[in-house]
Amino acid sequence: MSLWQQLVRFADDLGRAFDQQVSNLPGVGPLFSSKWNLVRSDLSGGFTLLRAEGSQQIPGQVAASSITGRTCLRLATGLGQLRDVRLPEAAANDPASAIALMLDTLSPIAPEDIAYCIQAVTPLPETGQINVQVALTSKTRLAEVVAKAKATGLRVDAVDISNAKTLLASPLVDLASGKPARQGMRPAFLLVGLCGLLLSAALVLNGWASWQLEPQSAQLVRQTIPAGFSLAKTQRDERLARLSVTQTWDQVTQSLPDSAWADSLSIDKTTLRLAGHAQNAAALVSALEASSALQEVRLAAASVQEENNQESFDLQATIRAAGETP
Description:
CATH class of the largest domain: Alpha Beta
Largest sheet: 5 strands, mixed
Strand order of the largest sheet: 3-2-1-4-8
Mean pLDDT: 81
CATH topology of the largest domain: Nucleotidyltransferase, domain 5
Number of strands: 14
């Protein structure tokens, strides 16, 4: 059995366990219980409607046309049999395949003519085995009985084997199809459907909110922002994008040669003005251009030769953005 099949089987077993717990709840359980008409097929070829208050012969005591709803044809013991088979615990994943290999030992009917279905699988931990209850009958006999029931006017939705212990219980299997009998509304399916519905509703609401509410929210935010906020934010961003005054001053002083000194420094936004004295004022332009702080360095005024072999200078430059390299 593949991993996918094991997961499907586990989910089905879990769902059926949940269904069983819900069906046992007072008040709620009956809402999910299956309602079946149980008709037993006798060895003589007659049919009997089985009810808790008593049995009624069909059509002598009750007309077939009056029996409405789902009907299970319950074969008498002589028309089929229930067998309990013990298998190794390893066969629990796929007991049907193990039973198929044993058909010739379970019934005198030729294996190719056997209709069978597994009714229940019970673990036996003390022996390391599982007990498999199998319903068996002849395909030929099954077809004859079903045809006769339909000719009588009965509706046949499932066929199983009569058992005195569970005579009035809902059918577990359908020998005609070889599959479990269809039950009423399963609480597990209802729960999954409800969860799916809630998830779909949540996704739809989320999509609607994104489509309708977010534009309105953005518009309200824009309306509540003060008029000067955008300008202040822009100025702050520009300030953060360029070097601070301290960083700029450190870069400038490191770029000045030892023979030069500054008398004044002013900064207006991204423009720097520097005045001082140096032996070669023109050489300062290239020295400051090479720094990581300034660009577009130029003489704002002509340098003046002084008596001590020094020149006065007045430079103007643009402060680089933070992280910008020469």
